[in-house]
Give the backbone structure.
Amino acid sequence: MRKGLLLVSVFSGMAAAAQTAATDTVPVRTLEEVVVRGEKPQVRGEDGVMTVDLPAIVRDKPVTNILEALGYLPGVTDNNGMIGLAGASGVTIILNGELTEMPVENLYQLLYATPVDRLKKVEIMYSAPAQYHVEGAVVNVILKTPAPLDGLQGQVRAGYNQAHYASFGTGFAATYAVKDWTFDLTYGLSRSKTWGNEETRSNHLLDGSRIMIEDNMRRVSRNWSNTIFASASWKTLKVIYNGQIVSDAENRSLSSGTFGDFTNDYSYVSPPEYHNIAVRYKAPFGMTAGGDYTRYSENRRQSLSKDGIPVLESSNRQCIDKWRVYVDQEHTLGKWQLNYGAEYQHSADHSSQDYSFGAIPGFRDVLRENVASGYVGIRRSFDWGLSFNASAKEEYFHSAYRSDWHFIPQLGITYYRTPTSIFQMNVTALRVYPSYWELHGGTNHINDYSSVTGNPALKPYIDYSAQASYILHQKYVATLYFQYGDKATVQLPYQSPEGLNLIFQTINTNYKRTAGLNLYAPFRGGDIWEGTATVNIYNQREKADRFHDISFDNRKWVFYGSLNNTVRFGRNSPVSFTVGIAWLSPSLQGIADLSAIWKIDAGIKWQFGNKRCCELDVKADDIFNRWSPTMTINSAGQDYRMKVRDMTRNLKLTFVWRFNGFKPRETEIDTSRFGTGK
């Protein structure tokens, strides 16, 4: 609900030598060795797609996994591990052009377990063509493909993270290819324990009088997480499994303030589980067909007590079955490429909430959704430098609450006359769905005063966006962007005029609009120093005529800037140092204003062993623990302040051992709709 932005860079080079001789009539002259050194292009463009050489960018950074590496992409922001894209309301991460169903938390766990050595390149698409079956902005992670001559390749990793509490994890990844078969396996095991703190002051207006309610809440959570990704390919047939099982999970919040001392314990009757299996086949005549099945289950129990006396107990259950099938066809008609296809999705969400005592009604509900869509697209490249892709998609959505049609256009254009100047433009629309749990209307109580309430009336909203980018010398990027979220959603606290109740509920607003300019500039000083500067200036406006029983129209100019530096002792030095600083000016979220935040990061990377097969990374994030904002609401009779004091400062130590010249693998994103903790 609250956080910021980020970015980074790098280089590469090549050499040549020459000498000349003379004829019999000209004196012989021997030239000294001539070395021509240039930079390998970091960013290329075609069909509205930015292709980024990310492995080169993060080569000397203290980065061991793909999740951390994505934060160094032009325009991409890494906010404490949450990936965003400047100029886009949301971003979906896919693997090798293939989308899989996965909650965000599970996906990030998989990305964290996947070695950065697997990367080949990354594509940034502000408007993904319909053939990807993803709406809006996409980061497509492309991995190296193992060959039979490579043999078994792999990597073993062990890490330790010290924040308020210590966490640790380990994992391995391996690939193997033989004849027409390719196998891929990634496994991660982590033990995490986190701490957070929120201080709130609510000056509640009730019956014409103000009542000050203060609260100090500490949150502690812990769990064991097992993440696995496995795939097997035979020629053009591929089967993928990915899943996560979370065990020994427990969340506790301790709240003390005006209404007394509260203890809120969340335990799990059974481990939350996520399983997904996907099949994909590509025919020699241009057809691709596939499907996948997802199952997610969670059974969480809540116990709330006041001054040691039980207040209420509840059980929250969710079981989701979701499957989808799709077929795509592509034809080459001269210099034109035509593609079209269809997709069908069905999901059944069985959820319930029961209270053991407390005289609070629960619910038992089955939410079924069906989504059918079809699209047609074209692609063309002209000799004079223009290339584009365009698609039109029609989608039908049906549930017990509503049925409607939605038209989704997409256009990506690149003008590439010379490598010096590349122009790109993207236009698209994105449909954003609420979480399943919110649609059931259940209530999660924090204490006697605060609660999180669902909203069965919540509607999906449409986000329209347009971006115009200029790429200079294949490394400097300027992006001018505009976003408009029609009926965009927001979750914020609301002081009820009917009683002393603070309600957190997601609602639809009139709109959310953002317009801005993002600048990305890498630079270097020989073989010793390189850096990246990022600037993002944008104007926010969020408007709602009906936020519960009040209205708001909030707007603000926001500035984000970051500077990241990498220093090493020489061109082939095994040791490199990084230092980064970032600052975000005051911003807004709905009716709320957020304070400025800043941070300083530092890290050391040491590569050693035979052919540098071993690596040790030490990284300190947010050294001064200042990357948490203060939220203030002071409008339309609402008077509320929340100071977030989460432990964002942490020290990470990671050791990596690679064997047999380890190379290839990676994954996808999707706005998570799973979970009972919304």
